[in-house]
Design brief:
By secondary structure, this protein is an alpha/beta fold. Helices cover about 30% and strands about 20% of the residues. The radius of gyration is 18 Å and the shape is globular.
């Protein structure tokens, strides 16, 4: 059974920068048996990142979310995992006001990092929380999951104007603010024309490993991948310039593009 001290040792061994910005996609069950469960996992991350910025996705894009089209960032459960759901209830955590692709953050600049999402009109805008990962030279950890979970790459496709990744029409929401008022909001959504293209995002693993952008390690029992956000986005953007529809199938990225 893993302890908090064990997990903090694993985080250091992965090369996570404790004073940096870290976003975590996670599978709690992949970690294995942990003393006191998910709360200990969160305690380990929070203590390790006490001088940095810790971020979890708290998405609400699922059809069961936002009943009546109303997104309440203070109460709406996330559809992407137990750790994010528990994390956003911790003291001091700030959740962004994005009705489909919110994040929750704790630590250095959490308020400025999460602010302004109600001013965006796409899932992963360059000026929003997902684009700010690039500006902050953040790290993205895939804790017991693969790069298929990489919401950041949805953003990279969006910023590169890849055709037919966003809907033409706008989806309308109401966002509940801290005063209980409902703010009108409209955004384009991810297009379903080609299904879920993220199923092919893991083709970035081989070139990422080759370029030193991705490293592999273990946290508990969980095989985990740590990515450098800026370098990953730059590499992916270069690939998309060669083939804007790179992620429509699972064929490997041509080795000549990066070797």
């Amino acid at each position: 059974m893993y302890t908090k001290a064990d997990l903090k040792t694993h985080l250091s061994g992965m090369g996570i920068r404790p004073q940096g910005s870290l976003l975590i996609h996670s599978s709690m069950k992949a970690i294995g048996d942990v003393e006191n469960g998910a709360d200990t996992v969160l305690d380990a991350f929070i203590e390790y990142m006490k001088d940095g910025l810790l971020i979890f996705p708290t998405h609400t894009w699922h059809e069961d979310n936002n009943p009546g089209g109303v997104y309440n960032p203070f109460t709406e459960p996330s559809c992407v995992g137990i750790l994010g759901n528990l994390f956003m209830k911790r003291a001091g955590v700030i959740r962004s006001w994005h009705p489909s692709h919110s994040v929750a953050a704790l630590g250095k600049d959490a308020d400025t990092y999460t602010s302004g999402e109600e001013l965006r009109n796409t899932p992963c805008s360059r000026e929003g929380c997902w684009g700010k990962l690039y500006d902050r030279k953040a790290q993205i950890l895939f804790l017991g999951c693969t790069l298929k979970s990489n919401t950041f790459i949805h953003g990279v496709e969006e910023w590169n104007d890849v055709p037919e990744r966003l809907t033409e029409e706008y989806h309308h929401y109401k966002i509940v603010n801290e005063k209980g008022q409902q703010l009108d909001y409209a955004q384009k959504c991810h297009s379903k024309k080609y299904g879920d293209v993220s199923r092919n995002y893991d083709k970035l693993l081989a070139p990422g490993l080759h370029e030193g952008i991705v490293t592999i390690g273990k946290i508990g029992d969980a095989t985990s991948y740590l990515c450098e956000a800026k370098a990953l986005a730059d590499m992916c953007s270069e690939f998309l310039r060669k083939d804007p529809q790179l992620f429509l199938d699972d064929s490997p990225v041509p080795e000549k593009w990066y070797k």
